[in-house]
Amino acid sequence: QSALTQPRSVSGSLGQSVTISCTGTSSNVGNYNYVSWYRQYPGKAPRLLIFDVIRRPSGVPDRFSGSKSGNTASLTISGLQAEDETDYYCCSYAGRFNWVFGGGTKLTVL
Amino acid sequence: EVQLLESGGGLVQPGGSLRLSCVASGFTFSTYAMNWVRQVPGQGLECLSGISGNGDTTYYADSVKGRFTISRDNSRNTLYLQMNSLRAEDTAMYYCAKALFGGHDYWGQGILVTVSS
């Protein structure tokens, strides 16, 4: 069982928006503004999409945005594209060089 | 260009040992914390172990505490994971990742460890 809870799957239509939630506790998500999101294609390493809750690394489109309220963080993907269909993981710093991940969410683009 | 290159994986019998290495380039290695993250096939990501930039502070997940040891040689820009008493459930893809507090900005390509008789 993962430390952070994500929905196992979400879906959205081409061009629409979808939001993936990530629920932790006051020991991780609620205590640090250090939430990150990753996209992972099968057989590939994860790629950072969002860090520090809301910041995007260079090269990540502004279709990807992050937010947090209390113990729950969210990733919103707007203008869904076919290439967005894959797995997404959230992660939070939990103190003393420990990070905890969510169980992952499979995004289906309809 | 930042690169992380893992090595040392492979097939090992239950109870055996392996040492993973991760050679880093393209950034000042000693400045950054590093993590080992694993992924059982078909499952999610698990942060196994972390180490501070100077190596003074380490973290281990309960699943590997007492069996795995993380270390680093900043003179060689290399991160290590010594894995002892390996179990079938340790079979996974192992990634090294460069860690910021707010996220892991670079990942290796992963190295497969298979524990089987």
Summed up:
By secondary structure, chain A is mostly beta strands. Chain A has strands at 9-12, 18-23, 35-40, 47-50, 64-69, 72-77, 87-95, 98-101, 105-109.
Provide structural commentary:
Chain A has 110 residues and is mainly β. Helix content of chain A is 0%, strand content 45%. Chain A has no helices and nine strands. Chain A has strands spanning 9-12, 18-23, 35-40, 47-50, 64-69, 72-77, 87-95, 98-101, 105-109. In chain A, the strands form two sheets. In chain A, strands 1, 3, 4, 7, 8 and 9 form a six-stranded mixed beta sheet that branches. A three-stranded antiparallel beta sheet of chain A has the order 2-6-5, with no helix packed on it. In chain A, strand 5 (64-69) and strand 6 (72-77) form a beta hairpin. Chain A is globular, with a radius of gyration of 13 Å. By secondary structure, chain B is mainly β. Chain B has no helices and eleven strands. In chain B, strands 2, 4, 5, 6, 9, 10 and 11 form a seven-stranded mixed beta sheet that branches. Chain B has a four-stranded antiparallel beta sheet with strand order 1-3-8-7, with no helix packed on it. In chain B, strand 7 (68-73) and strand 8 (78-83) form a beta hairpin. The interface between A and B is medium-sized, with 29 and 27 residues.
